[in-house]
Write a structure and sequence with these properties.
10 helices, alpha/beta, 9% strand, 337 residues, disordered C terminus
Length: 337
């Protein structure tokens, strides 16, 4: 899924939101009409309120010097009648909530936007966008619940005395605890580094799935897609991909180090991306097949220092055999690194 297709996804989401809003308001109109038939006094009071509003507007237009006083008097009359109307509804067994549209999101009222006078996307639509981008990435069932430790070797490593299975059990527990506690975590960034086929991508997907289930806005993409968005921005073809990466509540980058090194793009924009997210305390989760020394050589000290800052980043070093070389009938922990 290309990150730059977000415009099409946003367009579809906003269309769905408009449909939700219109249907909620139509249903509220039907409810009001039914209640008006059942409770005639409520209908009479509602009509009187509408009359006062029209009268107040007319008088304010005809007498501009006294418009503020006229409006205040109108509001007081409306409030009195509204209290009477609420009393009539209560006597008939209805609450004021029965008259209001039932929006999917009470914050933006299914508009998708919040804020005045400057509008910005509501948190609900940000989460919906991230989820659709995630679903389009075809992650499948890569979750903590489906993580199978049996595919990892249980033979102790000579250097550490621990088996690959023991290490992966510890990493799975750490990553699950991170996803469950987020954003209240000690180190907000994660760097998963080690050879291909050891479970890094799978764990990133597990974290992403759990965070999305908790309503967090997660943007997951490969390093190649990240670079493509940067390249488009550099060429003036951007449609919001770079901004989306910079501002995502959680950014997940897989396979860092496999993307091309484009002059004036890769290093410059990656540094800007990491720096902006660091300045705004936004977590970035990265998986790479490169060793720390290779990361430093490829991306320069400035980027390396941000990726490996132990005060903000938990580094998980992966080792062992490529599990994809094992018997696949027992399952496979990841499709990539």
């Amino acid at each position: 899924m290309d990150i730059v297709s977000r415009k099409a996804i946003l367009r579809d989401l906003l269309a769905e939101y408009r449909a939700h809003k219109e249907e909620a308001e139509r249903e509220a109109d039907r409810v009001r009409a039914r209640i008006a038939e059942e409770v005639p006094v409520y209908a009479d009071l509602s009509g009187a309120i509408s009359g006062i509003l029209l009268e107040t507007s007319r008088r304010a237009l005809e007498d501009p010097p006294n418009a503020q006083q006229i409006a205040q008097e109108g509001r007081q009359r409306v409030l009195r009648l509204q209290k009477e109307a609420e009393g009539a509804l209560a006597a008939a067994g209805y609450s004021p909530e029965a008259l209001r549209p039932r929006y999917h999101c009470p914050v933006c009222k299914d508009t998708g936007f919040v804020g005045s006078p400057v509008h910005e996307y509501c948190a609900c639509i940000k989460v919906a966008l991230m989820r659709r981008l995630y679903d389009a990435a075809n992650i499948g069932d890569e979750t903590f619940e489906n993580f199978d430790l049996r595919i990892f070797s249980d033979v102790p490593e000579e250097k550490t005395g621990k088996s690959q299975r023991q290490t992966m059990a510890a990493y799975r527990s750490y990553c699950e605890a991170y996803a469950d506690a987020f954003p209240d975590v000690r180190r907000r960034n994660l760097l998963l580094t080690g050879p291909t086929g050891l479970g890094k991508t799978y764990l990133l997907n597990c974290i992403s799935a759990r965070l999305l289930d908790r309503g967090k806005a997660v943007l997951r993409l490969t390093a190649y897609r990240m670079l493509d968005a940067m390249r488009r921005y550099h060429r003036g073809q951007d449609d919001g991909g770079l901004e989306l990466m910079t501002t995502a509540e959680v950014l997940v980058i897989d396979d860092l180090g496999t993307e091309p090194m484009l002059e004036n793009i890769t290093i410059e924009y990656l540094f800007t991306l990491l720096n902006e997210r660091r300045a705004n305390r936004l977590p970035t989760l990265v998986a790479t097949n490169l060793t720390p020394r290779e990361l430093q050589a490829r991306y320069t000290e400035r980027i390396f220092s941000r990726l490996m800052d132990r005060s903000e980043t938990q580094v998980l070093l992966f080792f062992g055999e490529d599990v994809r070389l094992h018997d696949e009938t027992r399952g496979r922990p990841e499709r990539g690194g």
